[in-house]
Amino acid sequence: MINSFYIAWKYLLFSKARSAIMVACITLIAVLPLALEIILDESEHQLVERAEHTPLLIGAKGSALDLVMNSLYFADEVPQPVTLASADEITATDLAFAIPLYVRFQARGFPIVGTTLDYFDFRQLQLAAGTPFGLLGECVIGASVARQLGLQPGDSLLSSPETVFDLAGVYPLKMRVAGVLAPTHSADDLAVLVDIKTAWVIEGLVHGHEDVARSRDSSVIIERTESNVTASAKLMQYTEITAANLEAFHLHGDPTGYPLTAVIALPHDDKAAAILRGRYQNTDSRYQIVPPADVIDTLMTNIFRIRNVLDAVILFVGLATLMALVLVFALSLRLRQLEIDTIFKLGCSRLTIAQLLGAEIVIIAAFSAVLCLLILGVVSHYAQQLVRTLFI
Amino acid sequence: MISIESLHFAYPQDGFSLKIQAFSVPSGQKLAVIGPSGSGKTTLLNLIAGIYPPHTGHIQVAGIPVHALSDAGRRDFRITQIGFIFQDFELLDYLSVLDNILHPYRITRALKLTPAVRRRARDLAGQMRIGDKLQRHTGDLSQGEKQRAAICRALLPQPKLILADEATGNLDPDNKLHILDLLFEAVDQHGATLLAVTHDHELLPRFDRVVDFNDFRSGSAV
User: Fold this and answer.
1) Is the distance from CB of A83 to CB of A68 less than 8 angstroms?
2) CB within 8 A of A174, min separation 6: which ones?
3) pLDDT > 90: what percent of chain A?
4) Angle, helix A16-52 to helix A292-335, in steps of 10 degrees
5) Do residues A140 and A180 make contact, with C-beta atoms less than 8 angstroms apart?
């Protein structure tokens, strides 16, 4: 038997291109449905579990899917904003607890999630290192962010400008990493969590700058009256919040009008949830209220419909490829008829000849299996990111 | 060494039949078989080697009744008692020269591939002057070198009978004489019997005996 494998190995090694093509074909046939299965399982895990644990979401009227995807998975598509007043309204109903969310900015490709510390309790987030954000300008980063950017508590992270060419836009904020989350195998692993006010700092609604009342630089002060000082664009804006300049940061306008992308509503019970939904389903309401599980259920139905189509396509392609492989093997046997006749003449049994050919198939299958496992290992390792890229 | 009596064989598909009343080859003899194409020379070799069983008659090789052996018995007989040399060498291009020489040991349980066999293969290749080409693929060899490798493959199991089917047919005149010398030398050294089918009348004087296949047709004992 070992000799059969030796001879088969030599043959496959000699016909490298043919062997490689056969291995690649078989690997592809096996990998495609299995990788799809892994990705869909991961997407189901990521999407459904998180949606089922989020009772209600309130946001501006528009796409419910955008609202859910942005609020739960921090997708790039930003829904129309609501205001902080909407969160206050929910709290005022005494039907639910409200957690504000502002998910609009990014830091080095990772979403910045403006929220409150209640979010940590709600998602049961644990810190692997450091502390929760306590001061303006501090952030807590997800496990994957820490690993990919090589950050730890005490390091800093710069928010990304929304558009590079917008010279009048907000300045990037240098945030201090206060803590790192333990892995959650969810979108939080890839998030940069900040206090909602820090998100507004990035927006430019809360800002800090040098004291214009004390400034004597005539190129900074345009006009000074008894009650008002008008400064030019030369006025130095702080891009990092430190203990020294923390006091200089201040709000402009009424905070209840400050933007949120959504509010997570945690009803006290089923009855409260039903009443709350009833109130917001009123057509006069400026907001929409959605149970994320329903939205994701619809999305998954569509994904699985596509999956069925893909499965059918893969099945047909797989069958066609298998038939092509059988044809290649049959043609190869024809080409090798002289060789088969020779070894038969030398005294080899038909069974041994079958063993020789079988050994070739076994070696090709073994290589395909190893390659398949390697690819599936890589797919599994990157499944979370792949799901984010493909579905979120 | 070879004894054939009242042999009859026919191919079912084309009606060709071969009848040999009596034919014998003493041990150690180098015999050439000549005859026109299609007369049945190769068929005779295949019958002696046990590739085809005869319809009737007796074939004995080295005392073994080949006609009475089972399929498995004929295979074991072939690989242990017969050395085959083909016109087209029929070496496997994906194996090295050494692996080709050792090939019979890798396709049957009747032969055991031991370190001693490997040593003998190297010695044999040295004797055939291809000792420095053992790791090469057969595609890198000249025609003469290929046939020398094929002779090594045939001789390695130390068979009692060498069957050569147009073994020099694809070689140039210088090479064919040289290869024949080497083959005779090796056959003598191994104490084997040689039965060679050839069309090349120039080589016939070198053989101990020449048999014209037409004599079989006439029904006379050869």
Assistant:
1) no
2) A137, A156, A157, A158, A239, A240
3) 47
4) 170
5) yes
CATH architecture group of domain B2-217? 3-Layer(aba) Sandwich (3.40)
Residue B171 CA to residue B147 CA, distance in Å, equals 9
pLDDT attached to residue A102: 96
Task: Using a CB–CB cutoff of 8 Å, tell me whether A340 touches chain B.
Answer: no
**Structure tokens of A3?**
């000799």
Comparing CB atoms, the residue among B82, B90, B113 nearest residue A342 is B90
Q: For A66-96, what is each residue's pLDDT tens digit?
A: 999 999 999 988 999 999 999 999 999 999 9
CA dist., res. A369 & res. A160, Å (int): 43
The most distant pair of C-alpha atoms in chain A lies apart, rounded to whole Å, by 114
ipTM: 0.84
In this complex, how many residue pairs, one in chain A and one in chain B, have their CB atoms less than 8 Å apart?
A: 61
Residues of A in contact with B90 (CB under 8 A): 338-339, 342
Sequence-distant (6+) residues with CB within 8 A of A53 are: A123
Burial of B5 (0-12, 13-18, 19+ CB in 10 A): middle
Residue B155 dihedral angles phi and psi, to the nearest 5°: -85, -25
Neighbouring C-beta atoms of residue A169, cutoff 10 Å: 12
Q: Determine phi and psi for B33, rounding to 5 degrees.
A: -115, 125
Query: Which residue, among A76, A101, A105, has the nearest Cα to A86 in the 3D structure?
Result: A101
Contacts A344 to B, Cβ<8 Å: 51
With an 8 Å Cβ cutoff, are A345 and B51 in contact? yes
Rounded Cα gap, residues B171 and B203, in angstroms: 13
Rg of chain A over Cα atoms, rounded to whole angstroms, equals: 30
pLDDT at B101: 95
Grouping H, G, I as helix, E, B as strand and the rest as coil, residue B115 is helix
Specify the residue for token string 């579990």.
A49
Closest chain A residue to the Cα of B95, Cα to Cα:
A10
Checking if the pLDDT of A60 tops 70, the result is yes
For residue range B172-196, list pLDDT tens digits in order: 887 788 888 888 988 888 889 999 9
CB of A343 within 8 Å of a chain B CB? The answer is yes
Q: How many CB atoms lie within 10 A of CB B71?
A: 11
User: At which residue do the structure tokens 């009859």 appear?
Assistant: B8
Domain locations in chain B as residue ranges: 2-217
d(CA A363, CA A366): 5
Flag whether pLDDT at A237 surpasses 80. no
A109: left (phi over 0), alpha (psi -120 to 50) or beta: left
Q: Inter-chain contact A346–B106, Cβ cutoff 8 Å?
A: no
For chain B, say whether A167 makes contact (Cβ under 8 Å). no
* Contact state of B94 with A343 under an 8 Å Cβ cutoff: no
What pTM value is reported for the model?
A: 0.70
| Closest of B31, B67, B2, B18 to residue B164, by C-alpha | B31
**B94 and A13 in contact by Cβ < 8 A?**
yes
